[in-house]
Design goal:
173 residues, mainly alpha, GMP Synthetase, Chain A, domain 3, 3-stranded mixed β-sheet, elongated
Length: 173
C-alpha cells in the first residue's frame, strides 16, 4: 500500500542514493531536488529578495540559503521564521533550521544578468526607434509645408525615417 502522507525530502534523497550506485545520477538527482526546493523558496519570498537569494544545499534537515551581501542577509533573517514554517507545512516537515550564508558572486551574477537584459532592451528599442509608418511620414511632410524653416527641416528628417518612398523630393506639392 502506498503512503499518502508527506515524506521528508531528506528521506527521499537518502532512499534514491541507496538505490543507485552511479555517482553521476546521484549528483543529478540532488541537483534537481535543490532546484525544485529553490523554486519553492523563491515563491515564498518577497519579490525584492528573490534575485538576491538561492538555495545552496539541503543536508541533515538544514537548508542552506545564500544571499548576495550582509544587508540582504538581514532582510532574509526577518523572513526566516515565516519561511521555515511555510516550508515545514508544505514540503519539508523535517526541516529543522535555515542557515543563511553570504555569497558575493550572487550580486555579480545579478548585475551581469541585468546589464545583459538592459543591453537587449536597448538594442530592441534602437531598432524600433527608427521605424515610422508611411502614413505618419506623409503627415509629417504636410506639417513641414506649413512650418518655419528650422522646424520644417526636422519634420522632413523624421519623415525620411519611414523609407525612401516618402522623402522630401517625392512629396506632392
Amino acid at each position: 500500500m502506498r503512503d499518502s502522507h508527506p515524506q521528508p525530502l531528506f528521506n527521499v534523497l537518502e532512499e534514491s542514493l541507496s538505490k543507485t550506485s552511479n555517482t553521476l545520477q546521484t549528483i543529478q538527482r540532488n541537483a534537481k531536488a535543490i532546484l525544485k526546493l529553490n523554486q519553492v523558496v523563491k515563491n515564498l519570498l518577497p519579490a525584492e529578495i528573490k534575485p538576491m537569494c538561492r538555495v545552496a544545499n539541503y543536508r541533515n534537515n538544514i537548508m542552506v540559503l545564500e544571499v548576495a551581501n550582509a544587508s540582504w542577509m538581514t532582510r532574509l533573517n526577518y523572513e526566516k521564521l515565516n519561511l521555515l514554517s511555510a516550508l515545514r507545512t508544505s514540503i519539508l516537515p523535517s526541516l529543522s533550521s535555515i542557515d543563511i550564508r553570504i555569497n558575493p558572486d550572487l550580486i555579480r551574477k545579478t548585475k551581469q544578468n541585468s546589464s545583459l537584459n538592459k543591453q537587449s532592451v536597448l538594442t530592441k528599442t534602437n531598432r524600433n526607434q527608427r521605424q515610422i509608418s508611411v502614413q505618419t511620414a506623409e503627415q509629417l511632410l504636410k506639417l513641414a509645408e506649413r512650418s518655419p524653416k528650422g522646424l520644417k527641416e526636422r519634420f522632413e528628417r523624421l519623415a525620411a525615417l519611414a523609407g525612401e518612398g516618402t522623402n522630401a523630393t517625392n512629396r506632392k506639392g
